[in-house]
């Protein structure tokens, strides 16, 4: 069944008003008609089973049949701190990370980051583009929330942002001991928040790893092979998701 997200302000006791780009999608792409059933989500974990009442020029009015709590969300909030990669790799990372259950994605500029976004307008455009991709991926995977894409942070600011997270992991090619990694992941169930730091192409500088360790990050290994930046985050997210799923 088709799923759409709306602001809480558009949700009333008996009906919901859908506005924005979804109106054109409903009318001209999906060609839905009155009396057809859809799901409307508030983006915060609540789903509404609805029937289309009226398709207007700039909005779609739907009547609420009932509401349920979305059951696709993990109990633990996962924050992905992703070192900025080259070209369009970030778009792919965002799409797949959202499918895997991430709560928020924070782009990070590190010492080995090749891509530099110094122009605020360009950064805003990129963030808007990335948020659109996150929203689309959330719809496709029936997420109860739309994961947010945070502004680009420096490595220092990212460490500060992660300060209060319960568990903090940094996959690092020089980390030793796959058994230690297995044990850490095995004990994640029941935690409220997890932060994962992924380096860009070329990985982290050693002093960055040292600073992360000082802030409570545990270096983990993902195996004997060196993974690309667009693979490393998704690999550990998959491991964590398997452990956290009920």
In short:
This protein is of the alpha/beta class and 246 residues long. The protein has seven helices and twelve strands.
Question: What's the CATH class of the largest domain, please?
Answer: Alpha Beta
Low-confidence stretches: none
Q: Please, how many domains?
A: 2
**If helices are DSSP runs of H or I spanning 4 or more residues, what is the number of helices?**
7
Described by strand count, sense and barrel closure, the largest sheet is: 7 strands, parallel
Roughly what fraction of the amino acids lie in strands? 25-35%
Helix content: 25-40%
Query: End-to-end distance, in Å?
Result: 24 Å
What is the CATH homologous superfamily assignment of the largest domain? SPOUT methyltransferase, trefoil knot domain
Mean pLDDT: 91
Can you tell me the CATH architecture of the largest domain?
3-Layer(aba) Sandwich
Give the topology string: H per helix, E per strand.
Answer: EEHEEEEHEHEEHEHEHEH
* Secondary-structure content class: alpha/beta
What general form does the structure show? elongated
The strand count comes to 12
The CATH topology of the largest domain is: Alpha/beta knot
Radius of gyration: 20 Å
What do these coordinates show?
- This protein is 33% helix and 26% strand.
- With 246 residues, it is α/β, with parallel strands linked by helices.
- The strands form two sheets. Strands 6, 7, 8, 9, 10, 11 and 12 form a seven-stranded parallel beta sheet that branches. A five-stranded mixed beta sheet has the order 1-3-4-5-2, covered by helices on one side.
- Helix 2 packs parallel to helix 3 (120-140) and helix 2 packs parallel to helix 7.
- The chain is elongated and about 60 Å long.
């Amino acid at each position: 069944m088709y799923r759409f997200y709306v602001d809480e302000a558009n949700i009333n006791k008996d009906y919901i008003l859908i506005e924005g780009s979804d109106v054109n999608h409903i009318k001209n792409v999906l060609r839905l008609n009155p009396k057809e059933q859809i799901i409307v989500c508030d983006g915060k974990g609540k789903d509404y089973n609805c029937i289309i009442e009226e398709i207007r020029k700039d909005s779609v009015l739907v009547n609420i049949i009932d509401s349920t709590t979305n059951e696709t969300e993990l109990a633990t909030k996962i924050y992905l701190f992703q070192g900025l990669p080259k070209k369009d790799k970030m778009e792919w990372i965002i799409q797949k990370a959202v499918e895997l259950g991430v709560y928020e994605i924070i782009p990070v500029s590190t010492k080995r980051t090749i891509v530099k976004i110094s122009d605020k307008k360009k950064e805003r455009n990129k963030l808007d583009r990335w948020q659109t991709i996150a929203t689309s991926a959330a719809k496709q995977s029936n997420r109860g929330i739309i994961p947010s894409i945070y502004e680009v942070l420096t490595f220092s600011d990212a460490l500060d942002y992660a300060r209060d997270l319960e568990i903090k992991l940094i996959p690092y090619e020089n980390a030793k001991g796959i058994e230690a990694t297995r044990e850490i992941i095995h004990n994640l169930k029941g935690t409220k928040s997890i932060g994962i730091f992924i380096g860009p192409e070329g990985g982290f500088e050693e002093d960055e790893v040292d600073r992360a360790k000082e802030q409570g990050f545990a270096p983990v290994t993902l195996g004997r092979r060196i993974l690309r930046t667009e693979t490393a985050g998704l690999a550990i997210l998959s491991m964590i998701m398997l452990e956290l799923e009920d």
